[in-house]
Amino acid sequence: MGSAQAGVKEYWILSPLDKTFFRYILDDQGKFQPTKLLTEGEEVITAILPGFTLILEEVFQDL
User: Is-contact 35 24, C-beta < 8 A?
Assistant: First the structure.
């Protein structure tokens, strides 16, 4: 069973060493599409978690 079949709509990849965030989002054709690379000082919002904001500066502050 693939990740799309399992109900996964997004993959999030965080790199503590580089302090970066990268995401793949499932498109209408069932394929994961990459988004732009985000870094410390930026915020992440997602349609799958309405009202949620991930503040990357807070995520990476103790590293």
Answer: yes
Query: How big is the CA angle at 22 (ends 5 and 30), to the nearest 5 degrees?
Result: 25
Nearest CA to 27 out of 11, 49, 41 is that of: 11
* pTM > 0.90: no
* 25 close to 13: Cβ distance less than 8 angstroms: no
Sign of CA dihedral 41, 47, 51, 52: negative
How do residues 18-44 score in pLDDT, each as one tens digit? 999 999 999 999 999 999 999 999 999
* Side chain identity at residue 40, one-letter code: E
